[in-house]
Amino acid sequence: MKRLYDRLLKSLNISGRDLAVFLLALLLAFSTWLIHNLGLKYNDYLTASVKAECNIEGHTNLSINISDVIARCRATGYKAILSDIKARRKPVTVTFNPSVMHHKDGDLFYVLATDLTEYAHLIYGDGVTLEYFVSDSVFFRFPEVDHKKVPVEPVYSVTYMPQHISRGELEVIPDSVTLYGQARILETIDKVVTAPIKHTNLSADIQGVIRLEKIQGVRMSVSEVHYLQDVSRYVEMKFTLPVTAQNVPSDKRLVPFPSHADVLLKLSFPLESQPEALELKVDYNDFISSLSGMCPLELSGDTKGLISYDVEPIAVNCVLEDK
After folding, report:
1. Model-level pTM?
2. 218 φ/ψ sector (left φ>0, alpha ψ -120 to 50, else beta)
């Protein structure tokens, strides 16, 4: 065989060095052709294995099945080959918005092709142009799990600049979350708390995002919440007001002692209007349900911009008389 090979080279007048150069040139030409063709765009059917992740109340957040998603796409030859390799190796985990995950039956859910379009770049990667999906829907199974909805309790510490105060409590959105886990663990949990929120010397409204403290063995529907707190500048106004009774039967008279009390108002600055027709009232219904005859005082009147008020005393003694 070697003799035949040597005769062939001799008859073609090709030396061993010339043959090496020829083979190298042939290899370079083939490489150039391959790179050129792989860089061209082609229309082809691409397949991707997809595992779905979605926060569905009462179900696991990860599908137990893997669905093949087939679509006609336009991509470079390189992208098409790479997509095929990825599909064979391991599935792509795609996080879906709960609004696009439709319930079929039991633990079976599906995503319509029209909704799947916005996730095409996650499924096939960048550089792939989707033409259409072969199937009109893709199905996933999310088994049911034990779950429980509990309130979110913010943990916070805030201080204010002089003459500034909060308007209401610090608010969190959402104010409740769904927990997933074993029933014996969920039974012991009645709330979740935020990481500490701390602000000092506030003179304006605040808002932000804060994480929820994790609970071992439990998954939460959200990992963080939005918080906000209204802050207002205020002025103080002090009045001495008469105490009157309300809801008293027509044949009775409820007499408060003392008949006047001091009230300190905290009003938003600048003032919308001066407080008018202010009164402190006691309620007959509070009196008849009280064992001591003491009735709390309640402010009434035109109090636009009122943030809070303090009364001294906070309750008065009342005597019931017949008319």
Report:
1. 0.61
2. beta
Question: Which amino acid is present at 174?
Answer: P
**Counted domains in the chain:** 3
Token representation of residue 163: 């003459």
Of 141, 166, 183, the domain-final residue: 141
What's residue 270's pLDDT? Answer: 82
Across the range 185-198, mean pLDDT stands at 94
- Structural domain including 248 reads 233-322
User: How many angstroms separate the Cα of 12 from the Cα of each of 6, 7, 18, 135?
Assistant: 10, 9, 11, 59
Cα–Cα distance, 39 to 43 (Å, whole number): 13
pLDDT tens string 40-68 = 465 778 888 899 999 888 888 899 999 99
Decide: 296 and 281 in contact? Cβ < 8 Å.
no
Q: Are residues 284 and 225 in the same domain?
A: no
Return the bridge partners of 209, or none: 226
Top-confidence residue, 262 or 252 = 262
Cis (ω within 30 of 0) for the bond into 313?
yes
- Cα 58 to Cα 148: distance, rounded to the nearest angstrom: 8
Asked whether the CA dihedral 271, 273, 278, 283 is positive or negative, the reply is: negative
The 10s digit of each residue's pLDDT in 119-137 is 988 888 777 778 888 888 9
Domain boundary among 93, 119, 141: 141
Are residues 133 and 52 both part of a single domain?
A: yes
